[in-house]
Amino acid sequence: MEFDDVVRSRRSIRGFQKKPVPKALIREILEIAMRAPTSLNSQPWNFYVVTGEVLDRIRKGNVERNVAGVPDSREFRMGPAYAGVHRDRQVEIAKQLFSAMGIAREDKDARMDWVLRGFRQFDAPVSIVVTYDKDLHGGDIPPFDCGGVVNCLVNAAWNRGLGCVINSQGIMQSPVVRAEAGIPDDQVIQTCVAMGWPDDAFPANAVVSLRKSVDEAATFLGFED
């Protein structure tokens, strides 16, 4: 696809076919993604691409610990809960997804099942755990650079017929992820990306999130018009 078509058509995919993704294709996607801009060419990112039994163990441990009430151990700063317009947008996308899936507001079991899907990385056949070098920890630039490479990753995947969802629920229990993926202590776990072939029959995959307009987001200065 043309670049603009990729960006405009891409959406987060939360339902996947039970079909493996070739390792060579993932390598190709990562090679493209790693052309992302990075501060002073520091390239702080690392990728742990997991599938099969390794990913199943991560899913199992993540679900069991979260259901048991083990505190969240994500390694990035969450910050305060969203409020105001940001909370409104969070609620709006949840309404879109629940409506598509036929999940009623009072249906606690269905809502919990949706949460568990997130803990399981939406049952995707592949998860890419993104880390950055710990000796850079404490500044905002390394996570910013990781955001840039992840943006390139999901767009490169979409251009090749693969769907993704950036999913920090899948790394809520970082000790499980670190142990099963063999992530050394000199790296910080930033996020993970669930990846696979989209299941077109999964209703939530048709949801397109609403975006604010350029006029709301941008201020232009010094232009004659």
Any overview of this molecule?
With 225 residues, this protein is an alpha+beta fold. The chain has 8 helices and 4 strands; from the N terminus they run ααβαααβαβαβα. It has helices spanning 3-9, 23-33, 52-67, 84-101, 108-119, 141-159, 174-181, 214-217, and strands spanning 45-51, 126-133, 163-166, 187-196. A 4-stranded antiparallel β-sheet has the order 1-2-4-3, with helices on both faces. α2 (23-33) packs across α6 (141-159) and α3 (52-67) packs antiparallel against α7 (174-181). The longest helix has 19 residues, at 141-159. It is globular, with a radius of gyration of 18 Å.
Topology:
Blueprint: H1 3-9, H2 23-33, E1 45-51, H3 52-67, H4 84-101, H5 108-119, E2 126-133, H6 141-159, E3 163-166, H7 174-181, E4 187-196, H8 214-217
Antiparallel strand pairs: 1-2, 2-4, 3-4
Helix pairs in contact: 2-6, 3-7
Sheet with most strands: strand arrangement = 1-2-4-3
Kindly state the mean pLDDT as a whole number?
Answer: 96
**Strand segment count:** 4
Helix content percent band:
40-55%
Largest sheet, if any?
4 strands, antiparallel
Helix-and-strand structural type: alpha+beta
- Strand content of the residues, in percent? 5-15%
Separate helix tally: 8
Distance between the amino and carboxyl termini: 33 Å
* H and E string: HHEHHHEHEHEH
Uncertain residue ranges: none
Q: How large is the radius of gyration?
A: 18 Å
Shape: globular
